[in-house]
Design a protein that fits this description.
The protein is built from 22 helices and 12 strands. By secondary structure, the protein is an alpha/beta fold. The longest helix has 22 residues, at about 335-360. About 35% of the residues are buried.
Protein backbone atom coordinates (compact mmCIF):
# COMPACT_ATOMS: atom_id res chain seq x y z
CA UNK A 1 0.00 0.00 0.00
CA UNK A 2 1.58 3.26 -1.16
CA UNK A 3 0.45 6.43 0.63
CA UNK A 4 1.28 10.10 0.13
CA UNK A 5 4.24 11.71 -1.68
CA UNK A 6 1.91 13.23 -4.29
CA UNK A 7 4.09 16.32 -4.78
CA UNK A 8 7.24 14.26 -5.28
CA UNK A 9 5.51 11.92 -7.73
CA UNK A 10 4.06 14.81 -9.72
CA UNK A 11 7.46 16.46 -10.00
CA UNK A 12 9.18 13.23 -11.00
CA UNK A 13 6.56 12.57 -13.68
CA UNK A 14 6.92 16.09 -15.07
CA UNK A 15 10.66 15.51 -15.37
CA UNK A 16 10.06 12.14 -16.99
CA UNK A 17 7.73 13.67 -19.58
CA UNK A 18 10.38 16.20 -20.64
CA UNK A 19 11.89 13.35 -22.71
CA UNK A 20 15.37 14.87 -22.28
CA UNK A 21 18.21 13.97 -19.93
CA UNK A 22 17.20 14.34 -16.31
CA UNK A 23 19.18 13.68 -13.15
CA UNK A 24 17.31 13.49 -9.83
CA UNK A 25 18.93 13.05 -6.42
CA UNK A 26 16.72 11.44 -3.78
CA UNK A 27 17.95 11.19 -0.22
CA UNK A 28 16.67 10.91 3.33
CA UNK A 29 16.88 8.84 6.47
CA UNK A 30 16.53 5.07 6.41
CA UNK A 31 12.96 3.71 6.54
CA UNK A 32 11.50 7.02 5.35
CA UNK A 33 10.16 5.59 2.08
CA UNK A 34 12.67 6.60 -0.61
CA UNK A 35 12.74 3.25 -2.39
CA UNK A 36 8.94 2.92 -2.11
CA UNK A 37 8.61 6.34 -3.79
CA UNK A 38 10.94 5.31 -6.61
CA UNK A 39 9.15 1.98 -7.08
CA UNK A 40 5.83 3.82 -7.36
CA UNK A 41 7.30 6.29 -9.87
CA UNK A 42 8.87 3.68 -12.17
CA UNK A 43 5.73 1.53 -12.47
CA UNK A 44 5.07 0.95 -16.17
CA UNK A 45 8.30 2.71 -17.16
CA UNK A 46 11.38 1.31 -18.92
CA UNK A 47 13.64 0.94 -15.90
CA UNK A 48 16.99 -0.45 -14.77
CA UNK A 49 16.99 -0.67 -10.99
CA UNK A 50 20.36 -1.28 -9.37
CA UNK A 51 20.84 -1.39 -5.59
CA UNK A 52 24.34 -0.98 -4.24
CA UNK A 53 25.57 -3.13 -1.39
CA UNK A 54 28.22 -2.53 1.26
CA UNK A 55 31.01 -4.50 -0.43
CA UNK A 56 33.96 -3.86 -2.75
CA UNK A 57 33.92 -2.20 -6.18
CA UNK A 58 34.20 -5.49 -8.09
CA UNK A 59 31.11 -7.01 -6.46
CA UNK A 60 29.03 -3.87 -7.11
CA UNK A 61 30.27 -3.73 -10.71
CA UNK A 62 29.30 -7.38 -11.24
CA UNK A 63 25.85 -6.69 -9.78
CA UNK A 64 25.43 -3.60 -11.95
CA UNK A 65 26.51 -5.57 -15.03
CA UNK A 66 23.96 -8.27 -14.20
CA UNK A 67 21.27 -5.61 -13.84
CA UNK A 68 22.07 -4.22 -17.30
CA UNK A 69 22.14 -7.67 -18.90
CA UNK A 70 18.81 -8.62 -17.36
CA UNK A 71 17.31 -5.40 -18.68
CA UNK A 72 18.70 -5.64 -22.21
CA UNK A 73 18.45 -9.37 -22.86
CA UNK A 74 16.00 -10.60 -20.27
CA UNK A 75 18.62 -13.12 -19.20
CA UNK A 76 20.97 -13.26 -16.25
CA UNK A 77 24.41 -13.40 -17.82
CA UNK A 78 27.74 -14.13 -16.20
CA UNK A 79 29.61 -11.52 -18.24
CA UNK A 80 30.68 -8.32 -16.52
CA UNK A 81 31.81 -4.95 -17.77
CA UNK A 82 35.45 -4.11 -17.17
CA UNK A 83 34.67 -0.94 -15.23
CA UNK A 84 31.82 1.40 -14.33
CA UNK A 85 32.66 3.78 -17.15
CA UNK A 86 32.16 1.09 -19.79
CA UNK A 87 28.93 -0.04 -18.12
CA UNK A 88 27.53 3.49 -17.91
CA UNK A 89 28.55 4.30 -21.48
CA UNK A 90 26.53 1.26 -22.54
CA UNK A 91 23.50 2.53 -20.61
CA UNK A 92 23.80 6.00 -22.15
CA UNK A 93 23.98 4.36 -25.58
CA UNK A 94 20.79 2.37 -24.89
CA UNK A 95 19.09 5.62 -23.83
CA UNK A 96 20.15 7.57 -26.92
CA UNK A 97 16.91 6.79 -28.74
CA UNK A 98 14.38 5.90 -26.02
CA UNK A 99 13.46 7.01 -22.51
CA UNK A 100 15.13 4.79 -19.90
CA UNK A 101 15.15 5.28 -16.15
CA UNK A 102 18.36 4.21 -14.41
CA UNK A 103 18.05 3.99 -10.63
CA UNK A 104 21.17 3.56 -8.50
CA UNK A 105 19.79 2.95 -5.03
CA UNK A 106 22.10 3.10 -2.00
CA UNK A 107 24.52 5.09 -4.14
CA UNK A 108 26.92 5.84 -1.22
CA UNK A 109 27.78 2.13 -0.91
CA UNK A 110 28.81 2.02 -4.57
CA UNK A 111 30.61 5.37 -4.61
CA UNK A 112 32.61 4.71 -1.43
CA UNK A 113 33.91 1.45 -2.91
CA UNK A 114 34.56 2.93 -6.35
CA UNK A 115 36.24 6.28 -5.72
CA UNK A 116 36.15 7.38 -9.37
CA UNK A 117 32.43 6.75 -9.90
CA UNK A 118 31.32 10.35 -9.27
CA UNK A 119 33.92 11.72 -11.70
CA UNK A 120 32.93 9.09 -14.26
CA UNK A 121 29.28 10.11 -13.98
CA UNK A 122 30.29 13.77 -14.30
CA UNK A 123 32.23 13.01 -17.50
CA UNK A 124 29.43 11.01 -19.10
CA UNK A 125 26.68 13.45 -18.11
CA UNK A 126 28.61 16.36 -19.59
CA UNK A 127 29.21 14.35 -22.77
CA UNK A 128 25.64 13.08 -23.25
CA UNK A 129 23.25 15.49 -21.52
CA UNK A 130 22.23 17.34 -24.69
CA UNK A 131 21.32 14.21 -26.66
CA UNK A 132 20.45 11.53 -24.10
CA UNK A 133 16.97 10.45 -23.02
CA UNK A 134 18.29 8.87 -19.83
CA UNK A 135 16.52 9.64 -16.53
CA UNK A 136 19.16 9.05 -13.88
CA UNK A 137 18.17 8.70 -10.23
CA UNK A 138 20.77 8.50 -7.46
CA UNK A 139 19.29 7.54 -4.11
CA UNK A 140 20.96 7.30 -0.73
CA UNK A 141 20.26 6.94 2.98
CA UNK A 142 23.55 8.39 4.20
CA UNK A 143 22.44 11.99 4.61
CA UNK A 144 25.92 13.39 5.18
CA UNK A 145 27.38 11.55 2.18
CA UNK A 146 24.64 12.67 -0.20
CA UNK A 147 24.90 16.27 0.96
CA UNK A 148 28.72 16.40 1.00
CA UNK A 149 29.61 14.23 -2.01
CA UNK A 150 26.66 14.66 -4.37
CA UNK A 151 24.96 17.99 -3.66
CA UNK A 152 27.81 20.11 -2.27
CA UNK A 153 29.54 22.79 -4.34
CA UNK A 154 32.88 20.95 -4.37
CA UNK A 155 31.36 17.58 -5.35
CA UNK A 156 32.06 16.36 -8.91
CA UNK A 157 28.33 16.07 -9.62
CA UNK A 158 27.50 19.58 -8.46
CA UNK A 159 25.45 21.47 -11.05
CA UNK A 160 24.52 18.33 -13.01
CA UNK A 161 21.32 17.41 -11.17
CA UNK A 162 18.03 18.72 -12.52
CA UNK A 163 16.10 18.00 -9.30
CA UNK A 164 16.66 16.95 -5.73
CA UNK A 165 14.30 15.51 -3.15
CA UNK A 166 14.99 15.33 0.57
CA UNK A 167 12.40 12.81 1.69
CA UNK A 168 11.12 13.58 5.17
CA UNK A 169 8.79 11.69 7.51
CA UNK A 170 5.08 12.25 7.01
CA UNK A 171 3.26 14.93 8.89
CA UNK A 172 0.31 13.99 11.09
CA UNK A 173 -2.38 14.36 8.41
CA UNK A 174 -0.54 11.96 6.09
CA UNK A 175 0.29 9.50 8.87
CA UNK A 176 -3.44 9.27 9.70
CA UNK A 177 -4.06 7.75 6.27
CA UNK A 178 -2.45 4.53 7.48
CA UNK A 179 -5.09 4.05 10.16
CA UNK A 180 -8.70 3.57 9.09
CA UNK A 181 -9.75 1.78 12.27
CA UNK A 182 -8.12 3.81 15.04
CA UNK A 183 -10.27 6.22 17.03
CA UNK A 184 -9.49 9.91 16.57
CA UNK A 185 -7.54 10.04 19.82
CA UNK A 186 -5.61 6.89 18.96
CA UNK A 187 -4.48 8.45 15.67
CA UNK A 188 -2.70 11.17 17.62
CA UNK A 189 -1.24 8.61 20.01
CA UNK A 190 -0.05 6.50 17.07
CA UNK A 191 1.72 9.54 15.62
CA UNK A 192 3.14 10.29 19.06
CA UNK A 193 4.75 6.88 19.48
CA UNK A 194 5.83 6.24 15.87
CA UNK A 195 6.16 9.65 14.21
CA UNK A 196 5.82 9.92 10.46
CA UNK A 197 8.31 7.34 9.19
CA UNK A 198 6.32 4.95 6.96
CA UNK A 199 8.26 1.82 7.94
CA UNK A 200 7.54 2.50 11.62
CA UNK A 201 3.86 3.32 11.05
CA UNK A 202 3.42 0.01 9.26
CA UNK A 203 4.40 -1.83 12.46
CA UNK A 204 1.14 -0.69 14.09
CA UNK A 205 -2.08 -2.69 13.79
CA UNK A 206 -5.10 -0.36 13.81
CA UNK A 207 -7.37 -3.26 14.74
CA UNK A 208 -5.71 -3.33 18.18
CA UNK A 209 -5.65 -0.74 20.96
CA UNK A 210 -2.73 1.65 21.38
CA UNK A 211 -1.85 -0.19 24.59
CA UNK A 212 -1.60 -3.50 22.72
CA UNK A 213 0.44 -1.86 19.97
CA UNK A 214 2.92 -0.39 22.43
CA UNK A 215 3.27 -3.79 24.07
CA UNK A 216 3.78 -5.46 20.67
CA UNK A 217 6.42 -3.00 19.48
CA UNK A 218 8.37 -0.90 22.00
CA UNK A 219 7.96 -3.41 24.83
CA UNK A 220 8.54 -6.59 22.81
CA UNK A 221 12.22 -7.68 22.60
CA UNK A 222 11.48 -9.70 19.43
CA UNK A 223 9.92 -6.79 17.51
CA UNK A 224 11.86 -4.79 14.91
CA UNK A 225 10.97 -1.54 16.68
CA UNK A 226 12.56 -2.70 19.94
CA UNK A 227 15.97 -2.95 18.24
CA UNK A 228 15.47 -0.20 15.65
CA UNK A 229 17.17 2.77 17.37
CA UNK A 230 20.31 0.76 18.10
CA UNK A 231 20.36 -0.82 14.65
CA UNK A 232 19.91 2.51 12.88
CA UNK A 233 22.68 4.15 14.88
CA UNK A 234 25.05 1.24 14.16
CA UNK A 235 24.42 1.74 10.45
CA UNK A 236 24.85 5.52 10.52
CA UNK A 237 27.55 6.34 13.10
CA UNK A 238 30.87 4.98 14.36
CA UNK A 239 30.32 5.26 18.11
CA UNK A 240 26.68 4.34 18.74
CA UNK A 241 27.20 3.99 22.51
CA UNK A 242 27.91 7.70 22.97
CA UNK A 243 25.12 8.67 20.59
CA UNK A 244 22.80 6.48 22.66
CA UNK A 245 23.85 8.31 25.79
CA UNK A 246 23.28 11.71 24.19
CA UNK A 247 19.80 10.82 22.92
CA UNK A 248 18.82 9.28 26.26
CA UNK A 249 19.97 12.41 28.13
CA UNK A 250 17.89 14.66 25.86
CA UNK A 251 14.84 12.37 25.95
CA UNK A 252 14.83 12.32 29.74
CA UNK A 253 14.93 16.09 30.20
CA UNK A 254 18.46 17.41 29.62
CA UNK A 255 17.85 20.11 27.04
CA UNK A 256 20.85 22.48 27.32
CA UNK A 257 24.33 21.61 26.08
CA UNK A 258 25.78 21.94 29.58
CA UNK A 259 23.11 19.62 31.01
CA UNK A 260 23.70 17.00 28.32
CA UNK A 261 27.46 17.24 28.86
CA UNK A 262 27.11 16.73 32.61
CA UNK A 263 24.65 13.89 32.18
CA UNK A 264 26.93 11.81 29.96
CA UNK A 265 30.23 13.06 31.45
CA UNK A 266 31.69 14.33 28.17
CA UNK A 267 33.09 17.75 27.21
CA UNK A 268 30.63 20.14 25.60
CA UNK A 269 32.81 20.24 22.46
CA UNK A 270 32.46 16.47 22.15
CA UNK A 271 28.70 16.63 22.75
CA UNK A 272 28.35 19.37 20.15
CA UNK A 273 29.85 17.12 17.45
CA UNK A 274 27.54 14.22 18.26
CA UNK A 275 24.48 16.46 18.45
CA UNK A 276 25.32 18.04 15.10
CA UNK A 277 25.35 14.58 13.50
CA UNK A 278 22.07 13.64 15.18
CA UNK A 279 20.49 16.83 13.82
CA UNK A 280 21.69 15.85 10.31
CA UNK A 281 20.04 12.46 10.78
CA UNK A 282 16.74 14.11 11.74
CA UNK A 283 16.73 12.55 15.20
CA UNK A 284 17.50 15.67 17.26
CA UNK A 285 16.50 19.29 16.69
CA UNK A 286 17.75 22.51 18.22
CA UNK A 287 15.59 25.47 19.14
CA UNK A 288 16.01 29.03 20.25
CA UNK A 289 13.16 31.21 21.53
CA UNK A 290 11.11 32.45 18.58
CA UNK A 291 12.61 35.58 17.09
CA UNK A 292 15.94 35.22 18.93
CA UNK A 293 19.26 33.96 17.62
CA UNK A 294 21.06 33.78 20.94
CA UNK A 295 22.98 30.50 21.21
CA UNK A 296 22.98 30.99 24.98
CA UNK A 297 19.31 30.04 25.05
CA UNK A 298 19.55 27.14 22.58
CA UNK A 299 17.93 23.92 23.72
CA UNK A 300 17.79 20.45 22.18
CA UNK A 301 14.96 17.96 21.89
CA UNK A 302 14.19 14.71 20.06
CA UNK A 303 12.61 15.48 16.69
CA UNK A 304 11.58 11.96 15.69
CA UNK A 305 8.63 10.75 17.76
CA UNK A 306 9.53 7.06 17.59
CA UNK A 307 12.99 7.82 18.98
CA UNK A 308 11.57 10.22 21.55
CA UNK A 309 9.08 7.65 22.83
CA UNK A 310 11.61 4.82 22.75
CA UNK A 311 14.38 6.69 24.56
CA UNK A 312 11.96 8.20 27.03
CA UNK A 313 10.47 4.90 28.18
CA UNK A 314 12.37 1.82 27.00
CA UNK A 315 15.92 2.14 28.46
CA UNK A 316 14.73 2.65 32.03
CA UNK A 317 12.46 -0.39 31.71
CA UNK A 318 14.81 -2.66 29.75
CA UNK A 319 15.42 -5.05 32.64
CA UNK A 320 11.75 -5.86 33.21
CA UNK A 321 11.00 -5.89 29.47
CA UNK A 322 13.76 -8.47 28.89
CA UNK A 323 12.13 -10.65 31.56
CA UNK A 324 8.82 -10.61 29.72
CA UNK A 325 7.04 -8.36 32.23
CA UNK A 326 5.28 -6.39 29.49
CA UNK A 327 2.22 -5.52 31.56
CA UNK A 328 4.37 -4.17 34.40
CA UNK A 329 6.42 -2.07 31.99
CA UNK A 330 3.29 -0.63 30.40
CA UNK A 331 1.77 0.16 33.81
CA UNK A 332 4.79 2.34 34.52
CA UNK A 333 4.61 4.10 31.16
CA UNK A 334 0.85 4.67 30.86
CA UNK A 335 0.48 7.43 33.51
CA UNK A 336 3.14 9.52 31.72
CA UNK A 337 1.71 9.27 28.21
CA UNK A 338 -0.72 12.25 28.53
CA UNK A 339 2.11 14.63 29.52
CA UNK A 340 4.35 13.11 26.84
CA UNK A 341 1.64 13.89 24.27
CA UNK A 342 1.70 17.60 25.12
CA UNK A 343 4.62 18.42 22.82
CA UNK A 344 3.29 16.01 20.17
CA UNK A 345 0.02 17.97 20.11
CA UNK A 346 1.97 21.22 19.83
CA UNK A 347 3.68 19.86 16.71
CA UNK A 348 0.32 18.77 15.24
CA UNK A 349 -0.99 22.30 15.87
CA UNK A 350 2.05 23.86 14.16
CA UNK A 351 1.44 21.69 11.12
CA UNK A 352 -2.20 22.83 11.11
CA UNK A 353 -1.16 26.51 11.21
CA UNK A 354 1.19 25.95 8.27
CA UNK A 355 -1.71 24.38 6.39
CA UNK A 356 -3.88 27.42 7.12
CA UNK A 357 -1.11 29.73 5.93
CA UNK A 358 -0.60 27.85 2.66
CA UNK A 359 -4.35 27.90 2.03
CA UNK A 360 -4.51 31.64 2.73
CA UNK A 361 -6.69 31.11 5.81
CA UNK A 362 -4.34 32.12 8.62
CA UNK A 363 -5.03 35.34 10.52
CA UNK A 364 -1.32 36.23 10.39
CA UNK A 365 0.89 35.89 7.32
CA UNK A 366 3.85 34.58 9.31
CA UNK A 367 7.28 33.72 7.95
CA UNK A 368 7.99 31.03 10.52
CA UNK A 369 6.59 29.70 13.78
CA UNK A 370 8.09 28.27 16.94
CA UNK A 371 8.09 28.21 20.71
CA UNK A 372 9.08 31.22 22.79
CA UNK A 373 10.40 31.25 26.32
CA UNK A 374 12.09 33.85 28.44
CA UNK A 375 11.96 36.01 31.56
CA UNK A 376 9.10 38.42 32.15
CA UNK A 377 10.86 41.69 33.11
CA UNK A 378 7.94 42.75 35.33
CA UNK A 379 7.51 39.58 37.37
CA UNK A 380 11.04 38.16 36.93
CA UNK A 381 9.27 34.85 36.25
CA UNK A 382 9.94 32.47 33.39
CA UNK A 383 7.19 32.55 30.76
CA UNK A 384 6.48 30.31 27.79
CA UNK A 385 4.30 30.53 24.67
CA UNK A 386 3.60 27.24 22.90
CA UNK A 387 3.53 28.70 19.38
CA UNK A 388 4.38 32.14 18.10
CA UNK A 389 4.60 33.50 14.56
CA UNK A 390 4.84 36.97 13.06
CA UNK A 391 5.22 39.16 10.02
CA UNK A 392 6.23 42.85 10.15
CA UNK A 393 3.25 44.27 12.02
CA UNK A 394 1.21 41.25 13.17
CA UNK A 395 1.79 38.25 15.39
CA UNK A 396 -0.07 35.15 16.44
CA UNK A 397 0.16 33.58 19.87
CA UNK A 398 -1.08 30.05 20.50
CA UNK A 399 -1.64 27.74 23.45
CA UNK A 400 -2.13 23.99 22.99
CA UNK A 401 -3.77 21.74 25.60
CA UNK A 402 -3.87 17.95 25.30
CA UNK A 403 -6.10 17.29 28.31
CA UNK A 404 -9.52 15.77 28.88
CA UNK A 405 -10.75 18.99 30.49
CA UNK A 406 -12.14 21.85 28.44
CA UNK A 407 -9.98 24.96 28.17
CA UNK A 408 -11.30 27.69 30.44
CA UNK A 409 -11.12 31.48 30.35
CA UNK A 410 -7.96 31.59 32.45
CA UNK A 411 -5.87 30.00 29.68
CA UNK A 412 -6.95 32.67 27.20
CA UNK A 413 -6.34 35.49 29.68
CA UNK A 414 -2.85 34.20 30.49
CA UNK A 415 -1.99 33.97 26.78
CA UNK A 416 -3.15 37.54 26.20
CA UNK A 417 -1.13 38.71 29.20
CA UNK A 418 2.03 37.01 27.90
CA UNK A 419 1.56 38.60 24.49
CA UNK A 420 2.03 42.04 26.10
CA UNK A 421 5.74 41.20 26.24
CA UNK A 422 5.79 41.87 22.49
CA UNK A 423 5.08 45.12 20.63
CA UNK A 424 3.10 44.18 17.56
CA UNK A 425 0.44 46.43 16.09
CA UNK A 426 -1.97 43.53 15.50
CA UNK A 427 -2.24 40.39 17.60
CA UNK A 428 -4.27 37.24 17.06
CA UNK A 429 -4.75 34.41 19.51
CA UNK A 430 -5.22 30.70 18.76
CA UNK A 431 -6.32 28.20 21.39
CA UNK A 432 -6.01 24.51 20.50
CA UNK A 433 -7.89 22.03 22.66
CA UNK A 434 -8.17 18.27 22.69
CA UNK A 435 -11.55 18.43 24.44
CA UNK A 436 -13.11 21.80 23.59
CA UNK A 437 -13.72 25.00 25.52
CA UNK A 438 -15.83 26.20 28.44
CA UNK A 439 -18.72 28.60 27.80
CA UNK A 440 -16.82 31.40 29.54
CA UNK A 441 -13.86 30.94 27.21
CA UNK A 442 -16.08 30.84 24.11
CA UNK A 443 -17.98 33.96 25.19
CA UNK A 444 -14.77 35.89 25.88
CA UNK A 445 -13.26 34.84 22.55
CA UNK A 446 -16.37 36.07 20.76
CA UNK A 447 -16.28 39.35 22.65
CA UNK A 448 -12.60 40.03 21.90
CA UNK A 449 -12.91 39.05 18.27
CA UNK A 450 -9.26 38.36 17.48
CA UNK A 451 -9.34 34.85 18.94
CA UNK A 452 -9.66 31.55 17.07
CA UNK A 453 -10.73 28.44 19.00
CA UNK A 454 -9.76 25.13 17.41
CA UNK A 455 -10.51 21.65 18.65
CA UNK A 456 -8.57 18.48 17.82
CA UNK A 457 -11.59 17.37 15.77
CA UNK A 458 -11.32 20.58 13.70
CA UNK A 459 -7.73 19.61 12.88
CA UNK A 460 -8.78 16.12 11.82
CA UNK A 461 -11.49 17.48 9.52
CA UNK A 462 -9.19 20.02 7.83
Amino acid sequence: MFIGRENELNTLNKLYNSDKFEFAVIYGRRRVGKTALINEFVKGKDTMFFTGVETNAKQNLDNFSRCIMEYNTGLTAGASFNNFQTALEYVFELASKKRIVLVIDEYPYVARASKSLASTLQLLIDKNKDTSKLFLILCGSSMSYMEDHVLAYKAPLYGRRTAQFKIKPFEFSEACRYFKNFSDEDKALAYGIMGGTPQYLMQLDDRLSIEENIKNTHLNPSSSIFEEPNNLLKQEVREPAIYNAVITAIATGSSKMSEISNKIDEDTSVCATYIKNLITLGIVKKESPYGEKSTRKTIYSIEDNMFRFWYRFVPENTSIISRGATDLAYSRIAPEIPSYMGSVFEEICKQYLWKLLLEGKCAVNFNDIGRWWGTNPKTRQQEEIDIMGADKDSALFAECKWTNEKIDLGVLEKLIERSTLFNYKNKHYYLFAKSGFTKGCIDKATEIGNVTLITYNDILKA
